[in-house]
Description:
single chain, 7-stranded antiparallel β-sheet, globular, binds 4'-deoxy-4'-aminopyridoxal-5'-phosphate
Amino acid sequence: MLQKFDPKNENIQIYVNGKLFPRSEAKISVFDSVVQGGDAVWEGLRVYNGKVFCWGEHLNRLIESAHALCFEKIPSIEEITKALRETLIANEMYDQVHVRLTLTRGEKITSGMDPRLNTKGCSLIILAEHKPLVYDNDGGISVITSSIRRNNPQFLDSKIHHNNLLNNILAKIQANVAGVDAALMLDNDGFAAELNGTNIFMIKGSTLYTPFAKACLPGITRDKVIQIAGNQDIECWEKDISLTELYNADMVFATGTMGELTPVIKIDGRDIKRQDRSAIFTNILSEYHALTKTNGLVIKPA
Ligand code: PMP
């Protein structure tokens, strides 16, 4: 499922450090820490019916990630929110929209690794594009297990949502070479961590399971699914999940802002049963859809 260029995005305006620029003129300095070391944090957001879904949660993860990386002069919540609002209004983007919001450590006075070279404060980039869901909730995806392990707090804590994505990109290349949609990444102990760009859940019997957030991003969609399971009295456990357990699950699905909830229909060549689109999955997905209609930062009142 390779995304294609959408001509609707030809004339978009992109926010960079306080100003909106046409696509061809939106640039960042070669001295910026994101160019020099992938030294930045980011959030992927979706806009539904004039609202930025789960904005509070995304903003919180962004600020916590920047704080963990010891960024200085982090823009205030009000400034970031104002910039996001301005960008969406300028582009008249209110639905079927994806936003990639990036906060870098900022520009350096000279090339180098040391964060003390960053004297200007953070750079803020807001790239909003017309984009339907990247996966459909119905069809499902096939995955392989990657030989690249998902990093954990011993190396680089997966709770920091940073731009240094090479770990996951290497896994995605393996999926591409194998001709499947995504790569399943294991943790240091050989248990499932997550897919290269989404979290993973498994249904067995009437219970939902997801890996502990030891070596995965604590996804906001993952969190919503756990909350919805609670609302619906569905038992949901975090646990170490082995490949054998996934191969024999009643259903496996991926979660993420870009694609919502997506069935995983094949893992390493093993078909995953779907129990007629497990009622558990269908009920959680429909409550998730209901939430996208009500929750979020209002940009354009309905
Ligand atoms: N895992 C990884 C590695 C990701 O990059 C993402 C999305 N940025 C997710 C999971 C899903 O997170 P969320 O539900 O917050 O979009």
